[in-house]
Amino acid sequence: MAPRRLPTLALGLITLMLGITAAPAQSPPARPAAAPATTPAAAAPAAASGTYSVEVIVFRSTGGGDGGTAAPMRGGSDSSGTTQVARYIGPLPGSRMQLGGAREKLARGGYRVLAHTGWVQTAGSWGSRSGLPLERLGIRVPGLSGSFMLERGSLLHLGMDLRYAGDGGPAARINEIRRVRFNERNYYDHPSLGIIAVVTPGG
């Protein structure tokens, strides 16, 4: 019997409820495509200061669902031939957090919010997989482990490798990375875990 995924109705409800327009999660191609001719905010190639603000909500469906593992991340390399490692700068000030309303809506919708935080960092080279561990980001939730990664090639990508086994049920893991645009809410889908993330330029 095939593993159950988060029901389509629930996925539709989350995207409608939170105003998220991003497509369901998927792994990127081996190398990021060239940036389309569009506005700088949409293309999100790089922050002028070299730093980025990242805000995330990690939540769990109260229905649980099968553990499963999201599609694994595919490797890649920066076309420049050099490797840069992501660097943590500091916590994101509360005045710059954008997802407070989304957190409240998730709670009202019956979802369990495991973590809601934000931080400022530099980006690693595309394919470097130089993630920042949860502990470094101030996320200390029993049963939740892993890291978030922000990588820049010709485009910006945000991903995570998270594992949760904190409620006595089967362990759940999501291991994915995808292109992101500045100030756009991104929803990473999983049978029993969900991540909403937004990236903005600067610290």
How would you characterize the overall build of this protein?
The protein is mainly beta and 203 residues long. The chain has one domain. 12% of the residues lie in helices and 32% in strands. The radius of gyration is 16 Å and the shape is globular. Residues 1-9, 21-43 and 70-79 have low confidence and may be disordered.
Rg (CA only)? 16 Å
Class per helix and strand makeup: mainly beta
Q: What is the spatial order of strands in the main beta sheet?
A: 2-3-1-10-9
**Global geometry:** globular
Structurally, how many domains make up the residues?
A: 1
Spatial gap, N to C terminus: 47 Å
Element string (H = helix, E = strand): HHEEHEEEEEEEE
Number of strands: 10
**Share of helical residues:** 10-25%
Biggest sheet descriptor: 5 strands, antiparallel
What is the average per-residue confidence, as pLDDT, rounded to a whole number? 79
Strand content: 25-35%
Can you tell me the residue ranges where pLDDT is under 50 for at least 5 consecutive residues? 1-9, 21-43, 70-79
With helices defined by DSSP (H or I, 4 residues minimum), what is the helix count?
3
Give the arrangement of secondary structure elements:
Layout: H1 8-18, H2 40-43, E1 52-60, E2 88-91, H3 100-108, E3 112-121, E4 124-125, E5 132-133, E6 144-152, E7 156-164, E8 172-179, E9 186-188, E10 193-201
Parallel strand pairs: 4-6
Antiparallel strand pairs: 1-3, 1-10, 2-3, 5-6, 6-7, 7-8, 9-10
Summarize the structure.
With 203 residues, the chain is mainly beta. It has helices at residues 8-18, 40-43, 100-108; strands at residues 52-60, 88-91, 112-121, 124-125, 132-133, 144-152, 156-164, 172-179, 186-188, 193-201.
